[in-house]
Amino acid sequence: MIAPERPPLERFYDLADLSEAGDEVRIVAGPDDLPVLARWAGVDKVERFEAVVTLSRLSPSRFLYKADLLAELVQSCVVTLEPVKSRLTRSFSRTLHVLPRHARPRPEEEGGGALTLAAGEDEAPEEIESPRYDLAAPLLEELVLGVDPYPRAPGVEFAPPQEPAAAKESPFAALKSLKKEP
Question: Is this prediction's pTM over 0.85?
Answer without folding.
Answer: no
